[in-house]
Known about the structure:
The structure holds two protein chains of two kinds.
Chain A: H1 2-6, H2 8-12, H3 16-42, H4 45-50, H5 56-76, H6 84-99, H7 105-112, H8 114-141, H9 145-151, H10 157-168, H11 177-207
Helix pairs in contact in A: 5-6, 5-11, 6-7
Chain B: H1 2-8, H2 17-28, H3 45-76, H4 82-90
Amino acid sequence: MSSSLISPNPIAMGNPPAAASDRSREAKARRRKKKAQAQAQAQPKARSQSSKWKSQAQQQIFSSSLLQALANSRRGGGGSGGGAGRAVREAADRALAASAKGRTRWSRAILAGRIRISKFRKRKRPAAAVAAAAAAAGRSRKPRVSVSRLRGKGLPAVQRKVRVLGRLVPGCRKEPLPVILEEATDYIEALEMQVRAMSELARLLSGGASNGAGSSSNSPTAPPPSQ
Amino acid sequence: MSSRRSRQSGGSSRISDDQIIDLVSKLRQLLPEIRDSRRSDKVPASKVLQETCNYIKNLHKEVDDLSERLSQLLSTIDPDSPEAAIIRSLI
């Protein structure tokens, strides 16, 4: 059926002017193809795959889903308590995970266990502070390097760091090294986009609010991902 | 000894050392602290891992601060103000 429908067309188009235009179109298409190939080759391999987080469209998707979530939470709870910042943070994380479209482990982990993550983060801060204090105390008491070597005899330094990293990337606590590395790469780019989008929103919202509130220079911004 | 340990760490049977090196170097290019430190691959893996952890922690902190700031900004916004219109246009 379909072949009988398609086949007459090229034959009918076979008169000279149409053929000429066809030829020129083909040539143009070929040239375009070559150009595209050259551009594809010019791009560094490592960047081409992970550029999705750098696109403006992705940032737009994230920003609008974050604002939507915030609007919904305001309408529903109207929570003016101390946890307002945390609510925004949770909404921001969920929006970020949603814009990853479930392609990565970290995003699925955020979407699956939002409550657990927020609890984990709450607990983590004092624990980190304690660890830092302990490390500082240890350093002041025993400034020798050999001590750390002895202490680390169970796990090599690299493996300890891999564990720490696995805990920092959602859903990667018990994953093997290659998975952690891949997820961390994607997660960092996503976080950079999150920071960019949120500081952009803060800038937009504070820009016209009142002229005295020009604190946009104070706002923490990610270093521009140049290159 | 070392081969047994690497097998226990998991995944290495399927993924070669070269691929891990590739992953680490991709990660390194994202880290502002060591991204531009010469083109040579002299940055040790442990340094890359350390910087990755630091950078993720920094980004988390930035998101925390921005969340705080945005929640303050949103709480002061009146539904009829031009800022609210900006929000509506973005949604």
